[in-house]
Amino acid sequence: MSSRTGDLLLHPYTFFSGKSNETVNLIPPFALVGAGAVFIAIIHVLFVVWDRSGWSAGVLTYSGLTQHYIMSSIATSFFMPFFIWGLFSVLIFGLSRVAGGTGSFPATLQNVGYGMVPWTLSAIIPLGIFLHRFITYTGGPTFAGYSGLWLLPPVSCALPLLGIMIWSSYLWIIAVIHMDQLPLMKSAIITLLPVCVFLILSLPVLY
């Protein structure tokens, strides 16, 4: 990423203003989203191979059907962030075009990816907890109701998910302002409409 990467967290207006004058580069946002995918996948793997009493035989101890379910869950946890990235990129691009935005789809894909930094950061804390338990062997990591924010966690994580969506929405609004040359109100509507629909559709899973 560029030398202004720190501005993504501290000064997003400066960050996205600079990106609007640069050539689109999808490698940094891909790495950002991919890092979150890897973190959550690692958490799922550790939870499978390590139970509350220490090492277990992991996937090998389960029936074929259960092994398939576990591996599907791990695969889903890895690919879900990429799906969310693509989904919101398409929706925000389509709505911005309807509203008269001038940004290209590659630019939208790039900036939506940067706006997913809260999702990646959300995976660092549980990953750190799991790795600490894993390395120090204090009885194995406890799940504590956390299934990973990529997978739409249970009600105990509803508020963290809401906070992450608010943070990402804030970054996406700023990105749309600079990328599509649209006023704040239009940019907010373009961003918040798909976000609200996403949260509403997530309610059955959360509860």
H-E string: HHHEEHHHHH
Mean pLDDT: 77
Report the C-alpha radius of gyration, rounded.
Answer: 19 Å
Give a quick account of the main beta sheet: strands, pairing sense, barrel closure.
2 strands, antiparallel
Unreliable spans are 51-60, 138-156
Q: What does this molecule look like?
A:
The protein has 8 helices and 2 strands; from the N terminus they run H-H-H-E-E-H-H-H-H-H. The protein has 207 residues and is mostly helical. The model is unreliable at 51-60 and 138-156 (pLDDT under 50). A hairpin with a 2-residue loop joins strand 1 and strand 2. The longest helix is centred in the middle third of the chain and has 35 residues, at 64-98. It is globular and about 50 Å long. It has a two-stranded antiparallel sheet. The chain is 71% helix and 2% strand.
Short description:
With 207 residues, this protein is an all-alpha fold. It has eight helices and two strands, in the order H-H-H-E-E-H-H-H-H-H. The radius of gyration is 19 Å and the shape is globular.
Task: Write the SSE topology.
Blueprint (H helix, E strand, L loop, with lengths): L6 H4 L1 H8 L7 H23 E2 L2 E2 L8 H35 L6 H10 L2 H20 L21 H23 L3 H23 L1
Antiparallel strand pairs: 1-2
Helix pairs in contact: 2-7, 3-4, 3-5, 3-6, 4-5, 4-8, 5-7, 6-7, 7-8
